[in-house]
Design brief:
381 residues; 7-stranded mixed β-sheet; globular
Length: 381
């Protein structure tokens, strides 16, 4: 919930969301209608109560049903997962994303994504691939898995309020759980595996995700990879099909190993060994335990489903303040197949820690649950 003073959830609702409205407003030359709608949304989330969508909205019935009991109350009184999801739906409505006018389908977060994709940090990371090209396969696999994991720190929404974390400090950039050995055991080379990758963020996170996908295909850890992305803009930087295309183009344009990887991935798309899919559930305010049967069937048919990022983790284990030593395997027993979570910690929710590790983290005095300085690789086979 967001009603606890000093909590991470309250901070997002009270500070991150208002700041995001102002950032989106400044990023486009919106007209009066959009400015008035953004003003109204800002007033509502800061001083008002949760208002329903209008009957003219195509998804009015869905949100009316999922939000029953929350409308007419403070945003802080709704479950955090629902409030976050509904905020982004309302933000898209305010800028006309779902309307019939000229702003229909215009991603309000696109300027942030594109600026990051063309930034110096991405350039430097792509150049680093040249040094890794001739490394032994096992060393390369570990490096690329960790790049995909820590790429989650590039979440644009996280930086709205937290700033860029100190990524070079080995004392704080630590894995609180590491089941990577089990992950690779589930994907032996040449086993005709299908891997489902549920993406999180675009840009600096999606590029290392795609590079990891290339490694899985090139070294035959997977015969086929299905990359699941969002159907519409969500949580600032979340990846859609357009973002996948932008990242592939960015790779292809790069010299050296990055360009070669981009070329292979482009061909893999044409050959069907890499496929991009989406589903409305990925923008729903629901845990994976309530996923629809068609999506459950897709994950059941995969050798391994790899979930990226903080929000997917919250939805995987349940967005609750679990005891951190609660079993990851128990919390994910419902999932229809082997599942792996790659996540940089940026919210309170966590399970699967040993008591000793938890005690050490608590004694450190660091905001290890929410600062983005710690991460985990958790796998249930």
């Amino acid at each position: 919930m967001g009603d606890e003073p000093g909590s991470f959830a309250r901070g997002v609702l009270a500070h991150r969301h208002p700041a995001l409205i102002q950032q989106v407003r400044a990023a486009f030359p919106y007209g009066r209608r959009q400015h008035e709608a953004l003003d109204a949304l800002l007033e509502e989330i800061t001083h008002g109560v949760v208002e329903p969508l209008g009957p003219e909205d195509g998804d009015h019935a869905y949100w009316a049903d999922s939000g029953r009991g929350y409308f007419g109350r403070s945003w802080y009184d709704a479950p955090f997962l629902w409030a976050e999801s509904y905020f982004y739906r309302r933000l898209l409505g305010a800028v006309g994303y779902f309307g019939t006018g000229p702003w229909r389908g215009v991603d309000p977060f696109a300027p942030f994504k594109r600026a990051e994709l063309r930034g110096d940090a991405v350039e430097e990371e792509l150049r680093a691939l040249d040094a890794l090209a001739d490394a032994p396969a096992e060393e390369r696999a570990t490096a690329l898995l960790h790049a995909s994991l820590w790429g989650n720190r590039a979440d644009l929404g996280f930086r709205v309020s937290a700033g860029e974390p100190a990524v070079g400090d080995a004392a704080v950039s630590t894995l609180v759980a590491d089941d990577s050995a089990l992950l690779w055991q589930l994907l032996p080379a040449g086993a005709s595996s299908t891997v489902a990758v549920v993406a999180d963020n675009a840009g600096r996170e999606l590029i290392p995700d795609l590079i990891l996908v290339d490694h899985l295909l090139e070294h035959r850890h997977a015969e086929r990879v299905v990359l699941h992305v969002k159907p519409y803009p969500y949580y600032v930087s979340d990846a859609m099909t357009a973002d996948v295309v932008d990242c592939l183009r960015r790779l292809i344009e790069a010299p050296g190993e990055a360009g070669r990887i981009g070329g292979r991935l482009w061909k893999a798309m044409a050959a069907g060994s890499l496929e991009v899919r989406t589903h409305p559930f990925f923008c729903a305010p629901l845990p994976y335990e309530e996923m629809p049967e068609d999506l459950r069937g897709e994950f059941a048919s995969a050798t391994l489903t790899l979930l990226k990022g903080d929000l997917n983790y919250r939805r995987l284990v349940g967005d609750r303040l679990w005891n951190a030593t609660e079993s990851f395997a128990t919390r994910t027993a419902y999932f229809p197949g082997a599942v792996a979570a790659l996540r940089t910690l940026k919210s309170d929710v966590i399970v699967g820690l040993g008591q000793g590790a938890l005690d050490a983290l608590e004694r450190s005095g660091a905001a290890w649950r929410t600062s983005g300085t710690h991460a985990l690789i958790q796998v249930r086979g």
